[in-house]
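Dear colleague,

Thank you for sharing your sequence with our group. We've completed the structure prediction you requested, and as agreed, I am returning the results in plain text so they can be pasted directly into your records. Please verify that the sequence below matches your submission; if there's any discrepancy, let me know and we will rerun it promptly.
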Amino acid sequence: MDRVAREGASTEWPTLTGPSRRHLVVYDACMSHHSTADVPTILFGAFDRHNVGDLLFPHIVQHLLDRKNLIFAGLAERDLRDCGGHQVKSLARLAEAYREQAVNIIHVGGELLTCNAWEAAVMLQTPAHAQEVILAFEGHTRRKLEWAHQQLGLPALAPYSVSRSLFPRARIFYHAVGGVSLDQCDPLIQAEVRANLRAADSISVRDGRTQAILDAAGIASQLVPDPAVAVAELFGERIGQHAKHGEVARVRDAFPKGYLAVQFSADFGDDRTLNRTAQQLDQLAHTFGYGIVFFRAGAAPWHDDLSCYQRTAARMQTSAVHMFESLGLWDICALIACSSAYAGSSLHGRILAMAFGLPRVNLRSPSQGNDASKQEAFAAAWEVSGMPRSVAVDELVAAMHEACAIEREQLRQAAKQLAERHRREFARLSDRID
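Please find the predicted structure tokens below.
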């Protein structure tokens, strides 16, 4: 789905340059004659921008792979270590450095199959610059794509799906990826993604809808839970330490009876939706005696906006509200892990709550309509019986009562089984990697 909001007048746009030999960073001095153990493995995904699920994926894959010579790659050079992410290399520059070399490439997870070049390039900007770029290209579809290609240094239409032409000697793997709206994308994007998938060595997807779309195209895939289902098992101790300090500890002290971890994206930001959201949250706070803690699961453009939360809080009657400011990956995980329940639009808000055996409800965007939803698709594949999936804002109170009525032990056992399922499936992938 094209996220360009408006079309209009042309403005001057910056002259940009893609990767060149002058800027090329040679990531491995030994460009040939590798033993099998020395073959580099590129972990590739959308962890080049702030989004909690994408930031988690390379941590999880790195832990389970237990392998040296790993390279963390996105579409842009970024250093996200300050918020718990990785120092990320540019795929375009890696393609130059490793073109003639054997290499493994693992797509580490996420809704990678449907992100087009324009969306990818805009989400790599700061929120302020993203707005400038969107306005600058109103009404100029061709120039939007040219700008995106210059930003990324790649000619791809779906750049988070790696083309074998970039790495002719690579073994390419897709791990628990999503593409629930792939059949609704531009036909040229669909064709590119299908060609890349057919050239891959192994494909797993995280939901049945994506699998059905690939099946219809004659592309085989395995159904595997999203990697984030393993976060409590793999990183519970680290997350527990973050819960004892800083902003998470202050939240826990402020709400000794518990709190709801609440999040929603910027497309919930119209006044009517915020009024209804405030009413529902007031009812939940009154009924359960919980505080309401707003947090951002993603700070990249087209993700979450703190001002929407502030506008919601201003409409609420309860004063037991906190704006969680930290964007640290492990702080966000700890906030959800220590909550009484999660409500929000983020799929990974839901999956983190699942991993810690907590009640969870996804909110459906007012603009979504009947479009396919990754939240619905994932819940259909892996959720426990009786747990609400995605609901309209007006249905939040009723859905949360349903979610909280499910026995916690059932939720904990389901979380354990999902983590074990993911570990088994990843072991099969690991066995196939050189």
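Summary note from our side: The CA atoms of residues 104 and 171 lie 5 Å apart.

Kind regards,
the structure core
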